Amino acid sequence: MLNAMGPLIRPPRLKQGDTVGVVAPAGAVDKKQLENELDAIRAMGFEPLLGKRIHARARYMAGVDTDRARDIMDMFQDPAVRAIFCARGGYGSNRVLPHLKPKIIRANPKVVVGSSDITLLLHFLVQNCGLIAFHGPMVGTGFGLATMKQSRRQFKALLTGEAKGKIFRAPRAKVFSKGVARGKITGGCLTLLCRSLSTRYEIKIRNRILFLEDVNEPLYRVDGMLWQLKNAGIFKGVRGIIFGEMINCRPQRRGDGTIEDILTDLFPRPRFPILTHCPIGHGKEVWTLPLETSATLDSESKTLELQHCGVKS
């Protein structure tokens, strides 16, 4: 479907003072907490506009599926809104996808940023709408919970099209396999990528640099999900892998091993670079990465450099 639409669209870059929509495609939002967290967006020079139904609740989700989808579509169709930032993850993004309108989205390209459960929405925008989407911090569970000084600078630089936003360094990362890889970047939350398998929203990884992250998963579940991807053939043709910090993904008992032990079993003779413990996903510092953007990964120097920022200048 993506090839039939032609080249991916880069959304227009953001400018100081732009209005950005804030929506909740997945889990329910705490109203008081969200209000406090919007100050982080204002401090970056953007003016947040809340979705009309953002404070709704339906069980563990931020309202019924059609209302969450309507908030997203309203933001795409509002010419005053220049970007769409997701408030939080949780659960529910998979349920809004059938209610979104790809033709309208493609005709109104905008920056969309999210992570965690939003992974499936981001890949829908790429694969079904032909729009570059951004895996990065969210209003409530990223900027609202940590100072994230480096992340805020990189977030703003990337989305406003500044060249310095294209280079990522991870001095605290660990090298599992040395090498240099070039290819388009893709990825997201490991749980959600597994959830996409055998659906029409299944992630496309061949010839790409893949980034993976997750949070609060016991180590044996991380092992199981990675083997699910391998047994599904997802790693065939991958050019490089970047793992996030895998926050609180710990062994349950002594002797369970480490993430490196899992990778040794998965990739006994890796022919591509693998970097672990990078600031992606749920940590105190989080990279903002434009999906399907050409990049160079150098695991030995612990750097990732994008060909462009993912936005149209």
Can you offer a commentary on this structure?
This protein is of the alpha/beta class and 313 residues long. It has eleven helices and 14 strands. The chain has helices at residues 2-5, 31-43, 65-77, 93-96, 102-107, 119-129, 139-143, 149-159, 190-196, 219-231, 259-266; strands spanning 19-23, 47-50, 81-86, 111-114, 134-135, 167-169, 174-177, 180-189, 208-213, 240-244, 274-278, 289-290, 294-298, 303-306. The protein has an eight-stranded mixed beta sheet. It has a six-stranded mixed beta sheet with strand order 2-1-3-4-5-12, sandwiched between helices. α9 (190-196) packs parallel to α10 (219-231). The radius of gyration is 18 Å and the shape is globular. The model has no long low-confidence stretch (mean pLDDT 93).
Say what oligomer this is: single chain
CATH class membership of the largest domain: Alpha Beta
Distance between the termini: 26 Å
Q: What fold name stands as the CATH topology of the largest domain?
A: Rossmann fold
Q: What number of domains?
A: 2
Q: What is the residue-mean pLDDT, rounded to a whole number?
A: 93
- Uncertain ranges: none
